[in-house]
From TrEMBL, chain B:
Ranges that cross the membrane: 63-82, 94-112, 127-148
Source domain of life: Archaea
Protein name: Cytochrome c heme-binding site
Species the sequence originates in: Methanococcus voltae PS
Keywords (A to Z) from UniProt: Membrane, Transmembrane, Transmembrane helix
């Protein structure tokens, strides 16, 4: 059954990509519009996402299908991805979360959208977004090759 | 029916949980939908298989990686082609875009997911993810103050 996650994410990804292109869904863009022009059109995507996930998670946990919900903060966080992630305390997780979130927020504004929006724009033929997606791929390798070990050695 | 961001967000939140339960896109928890992590899984899987390295990834992707990224690009491509939105263009310098993608991936993996997964983790009751969402908003505010309004 190893192929199930791959098939499932491919199908749902395609549907989401289609809907994302039609609606221009972007979480960072939603926050930006709220701040800049007090427009909640895109922001409703973020609210809807959290609401939809919350209601669905409650239903599935009542059905006994979601043993990990609600996920409490003291249990197995993976804020730092990798095998040694569980060994760190709460404070390091908060620090990396704040640093990462600030970075993602600022870069998303400069680039013009969060990673999801840029994937959709790559599909629309935006060459900058295609370069961005390749940059993400290279960044992942760099993170796991060098940055993760560096961060862990600083926090440990 | 008009496709609005609110409705798509609702559907995405619903489908993220469905992916986790029906298609077992877990561990870790709240992993149903994440652009940064799923890109990482796919890339590291390819690099690991091509070069024999052992870069880290979620256990769900060890044998066959999750393909959300491919799906989203195909879906967006189909939507753009079907509605005559497809056009090759650049918004700004491609080298800058590449560098920003590289940086955003490092920051995203540092906090443990892209904005989508932070929202999903928040829905799961993870207060650290809520802190992350708040600071994404702070970052967006700083970005608009020092980049958009000056530009």
């Amino acid at each position: 059954m190893n192929w199930l996650p791959a098939i499932g994410t491919l199908i749902f990804g395609a549907i989401l990509g289609y809907l994302g292109q039609r609606s221009a869904l972007c979480f960072c863009g939603g926050i930006r519009d709220m701040i800049l022009i007090k427009d909640s059109w895109l922001f409703k995507g973020l609210v809807g996402f959290i609401g939809g996930a919350l209601v669905t998670a409650i239903v599935f946990s009542l059905l006994g299908q979601l043993p990990t919900f609600p996920w409490v903060i003291t249990k197995g966080l993976t804020a730092i991805p990798g095998d040694a992630a569980g060994n760190l305390g709460l404070m390091p997780h908060l620090i990396v979360t704040v640093i990462g979130a600030l970075g993602v927020g600022i870069i998303s504004i400069i680039q013009g959208g969060c990673p999801f929006r840029n994937l959709v724009m790559a599909g629309e033929g935006n060459k900058t977004a295609i370069a961005y997606v390749f940059g993400m791929a290279v960044g992942a390798v760099i993170f796991h090759q060098w940055v993760l070990a560096l961060v862990q050695s600083i926090l440990a | 029916m008009k496709i609005t961001p609110g409705k798509v967000g609702l559907f995405a939140g619903f489908s993220a949980i469905i992916l986790e339960t029906m298609f077992k896109v877990t561990p870790p928890p709240a992993y149903g939908l994440c652009i940064a992590c799923h890109t990482r899984d796919l890339t590291n899987w390819i690099v690991n298989n091509a070069l024999g390295t052992s870069l880290g990834m979620a256990p769900v992707s060890k044998l066959i990686p999750v393909l959300t990224v491919i799906g989203v690009i195909i879906g967006a491509l189909v939507a753009a082609k079907a509605n005559n939105d497809f056009k090759l263009r650049t918004t700004h310098n491609m080298a800058v875009g590449f560098t920003l993608g590289l940086l955003v991936m490092n920051f995203a993996l540092l906090m443990g997911g892209c904005p989508v997964r932070m929202a999903l983790r928040t829905a799961y009751g993870d207060m650290i993810a809520l802190v992350g969402l708040v600071f994404i908003a702070v970052g967006v505010y700083l970005g608009t103050e020092f980049y958009l309004k000056k530009a």
